[in-house]
């Protein structure tokens, strides 16, 4: 249930608003001036604050500023009988959700309260999900290779530099792309991931750039492509080495000009997108064989991050095992299972052809099939 705070030096206004809001099932506190309101804000958590502008001791605009200094993200609805356009603009610039003149139209007030609460709920939910996502996106390991990659990510994340991520399948190339995006200034924008290897060659251009209705037989309606969907954020082209030369040419143009054209269209569409790409192929060999454009390679390869295979960083396997045990157990809603040291040693010395992905799948299998403690016999049986 939402908790509201009314701050107004007129008792009659506070009483009227309180009765109306409590009738709508809101929990309501009152403050008779700005100073009392500030004390309550510093002690309690509110979902919305309705605040008069003109008050003794501390006016509404000053209170809004001080609440911001305290780190409060609670939305303010400002009300005043002496409101002017300048006051409304100032309040909005300071972060107020809305400005309503006294005496307020009660229907408008209730709609504004509802909208402010919904906006605050969505922002809090988005913030929670972002923290949850960022927590899950973690590059695990203490090897020199992983430390070096973490240092590169820290330097590159806050720029708009294009990044080419290389490495074998299952090493975690997509993890690097996610980590770069969610720790960047574009983190509030979309991250659009495209697996180029999973899309048929005759559909890749429509998938990336979109198409206009009627541009080909099955184009029964307009389609917005992945580049447009990623506007303001990041596009991650996974397995770009599997892309056709025709599609590569169009990607190159998007990189050079920040523009795309839908299939069947004649209008240039400007895009604001950061580019990440990944491949498990040796693009230099692909260039020599005429399968990959050299100019596109150089455009993409501003920063290169190479993900080592798991056998190249065996010292990270124990911490990966413990992390997967904890995370997967949490997902299944069970207590974290233990694993014997000789079982860890056995797993550490296997040749993981599928790299980190294969190790994670193996740990999940062991969690499902084994008892509270995973033994050496268990690992020998289920790997």
Can you give a write-up of this model?
- The chain has helices at residues 11-23, 34-43, 60-69, 85-93, 106-136, 144-156, 173-182, 204-209, 226-229, 245-257, 283-288, 294-300, 317-332, 341-348, 355-369, 376-382, and strands at residues 3-7, 27-31, 48-52, 76-80, 98-101, 163-166, 191-195, 234-238, 259-260, 269-270, 274-279, 303-306, 338-339, 373-374.
- It is globular and about 80 Å long.
- The chain has 383 residues and is of the alpha/beta class.
- It folds into three domains: 3-128, Response regulator (Rossmann fold, 3-Layer(aba) Sandwich); 137-308, 3-Layer(aba) Sandwich (Rossmann fold), CATH 3.40.50; 311-382, Helicase, Ruva Protein, domain 3.
- The chain starts with a strand and ends with a helix.
- Helix 10 (245-257) crosses helix 12.
- Helix content is 46%, strand content 15%.
Please state the CA-atom Rg, rounded to the nearest Å. 28 Å
Strand order of the largest sheet: 2-1-3-4-5
Structural class: alpha/beta
Strand content: 5-15%
CATH topology of the largest domain: Rossmann fold
Kindly give the count of domains: 3
Residue windows where pLDDT falls under 50 for at least 5 positions: none
> Could you give the order of the helices and strands?
EHEHEHEHEHHEHEHHEHEEEHHEHEHHEH
Task: Report the average pLDDT across residues.
Answer: 91
Oligomer: single chain
Within CATH, the superfamily of the largest domain carries the name P-loop containing nucleotide triphosphate hydrolases
Instruction: Output the number of helix runs.
Output: 16
Number of E-state strands: 14
Major beta sheet summary: 5 strands, parallel
Helical coverage, percent range: 40-55%
Q: Indicate the overall shape.
A: globular
Roughly how many Å apart are the termini? Answer: 51 Å
């Amino acid at each position: 249930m939402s908790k509201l705070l009314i701050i107004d030096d007129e008792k009659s206004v506070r009483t009227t608003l309180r009765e109306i809001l409590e009738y709508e099932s809101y929990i309501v506190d009152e403050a008779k001036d700005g100073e009392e309101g500030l004390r309550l804000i510093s002690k309690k958590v509110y979902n919305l604050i309705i605040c008069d502008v003109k008050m003794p001791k501390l006016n509404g605009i000053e209170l809004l500023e001080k609440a911001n200094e305290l780190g409060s993200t609670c939305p303010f609805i400002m009300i005043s009988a002496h409101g002017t356009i300048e006051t409304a603009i100032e309040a909005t610039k300071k972060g107020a959700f809305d400005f309503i003149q006294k005496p307020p139209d009660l229907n408008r007030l209730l709609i504004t309260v509802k909208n402010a609460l919904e906006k605050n709920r969505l922002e809090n939910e988005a913030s929670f999900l972002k923290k949850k996502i960022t927590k899950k996106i973690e590059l695990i390991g203490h090897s020199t290779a992983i430390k070096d990659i973490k240092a590169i990510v820290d330097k590159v994340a806050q720029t708009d530099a294009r990044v080419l991520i290389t490495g074998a399948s299952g090493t975690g190339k997509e993890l690097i792309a996610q980590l770069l995006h969610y720790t960047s200034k574009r983190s509030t924008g979309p991250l659009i991931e495209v697996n180029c290897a999973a899309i048929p060659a005759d559909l890749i251009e429509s998938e990336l750039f979109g198409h206009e209705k009627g541009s080909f037989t099955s184009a029964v309606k307009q389609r917005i492509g992945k580049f447009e969907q990623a506007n303001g954020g990041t596009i991650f082209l996974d397995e770009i080495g599997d892309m056709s030369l025709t599609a590569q040419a169009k990607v190159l143009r998007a990189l050079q000009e920040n523009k795309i054209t839908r299939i069947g269209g004649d209008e240039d569409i400007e895009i604001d997108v950061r580019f990440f790409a990944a491949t498990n192929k040796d693009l230099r060999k692909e260039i020599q064989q005429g399968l990959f454009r050299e100019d596109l390679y150089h455009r993409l390869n501003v920063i290169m991050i190479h993900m080592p295979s798991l056998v190249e960083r065996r010292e990270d396997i124990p911490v990966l095992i413990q992390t997967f045990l904890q995370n997967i157990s949490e997902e299944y809603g069970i207590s974290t299972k233990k694993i014997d040291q000789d079982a860890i040693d056995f797993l550490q010395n296997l040749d993981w052809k599928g790299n980190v992905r294969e190790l994670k799948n193996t740990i999940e299998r062991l969690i499902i099939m084994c008892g509270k403690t995973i033994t050496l016999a268990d690992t020998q049986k289920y790997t």
